[in-house]
Write a structure and sequence with these properties.
about 240 residues, mainly alpha, Multidrug efflux transporter AcrB transmembrane fold, 2 domains, 10 helices, disordered C terminus
Length: about 240
């Protein structure tokens, strides 16, 4: 402890833009430990009054935990709404979308921070919309009366193409709602910048994943119900 009559100096170490606050804090602690004995010989002691690296790490871990919980809740809800295999397909699209978005964010020089993760958490419910729409329409086609008249490949393409236009328009409308946030200035604009940058990218990635991976996984995991219709049998025999 420092005595009141002793001279004291407050030293603040700030990280550079684009660096990781957690790593910077650990490096500072390591350097202090290396010089601890030398400082004590000179009668110099130190205490850490604020550790923003620890706070940032706790905040990020909490957001990641909430992200995982949200994904699990979506998966459980889809089990009751569509089925177990359909739920697996939609749940798989979430990490795929996040991976694509994070990769693009990395290429654009963005860092993973609380605001970036909040943007993902904010858009998580929107990210699965396209995949849910696609898988729900595939599910509907699989249980249609003329399912035996079509091959699985044809059915998946038709089901996906059927909802393409309205899904694209709906996603575009959501993206446009994020555009005004790009023009917010000052400190608030800098603070909110990751949201209008990452949410639209994540939504576009969700469309790509929904149109490519969802039908592919449906082809691998879903099967047509086993029942026959006479008119389909006759048509196939005639061919």
């Amino acid at each position: 402890k420092f005595l009141p009559e002793k001279e004291q100096v407050t030293l603040t170490v700030a990280k550079l833009a684009g660096t990781n606050a957690v790593f910077v804090a650990k490096d500072v602690e390591r350097v202090l430990e290396e010089y601890k004995e030398e400082l004590e010989k000179e009668g110099i002691g130190y205490i850490v009054t604020r550790d923003y690296g620890e706070r940032a790490n706790e905040a990020v871990n909490e957001l990641v935990m909430h992200l995982v919980i949200t994904i699990l809740i979506i998966a459980v809800m889809l089990v009751f709404a569509l089925g177990f295999k359909e739920s697996i397909i939609v749940t798989f699209t979430v990490p795929a979308i996040l991976a694509v978005t994070l990769f693009i964010a990395y290429l654009s020089g963005q860092t993973i921070n609380r605001i970036t993760l909040f943007a993902f958490l904010l858009s998580l419910g929107l990210l699965v919309d396209a995949a849910i729409i696609v898988i729900e329409n595939i599910h509907r086609h699989l249980h249609a009366h003329d399912v035996d008249c079509k091959e699985m490949d044809e059915l998946l393409v038709e089901a996906t193409d059927e909802i393409g236009a309205p899904t694209n328009v709906a996603t575009l409308a959501i993206i446009l709602t994020m555009v005004p946030m790009m023009f917010v200035g000052g400190m608030m604009g800098s603070f909110m910048k990751p949201i209008p940058l990452n949410v639209p990218v994540a939504l576009i990635a969700s469309l790509v994943v929904a149109y490519i991976f969802t039908p592919y996984l449906s082809l691998k995991l879903l099967k047509k119900p086993k029942h026959k219709h006479p008119h389909c049998t006759v048509e196939k025999e005639a061919k």
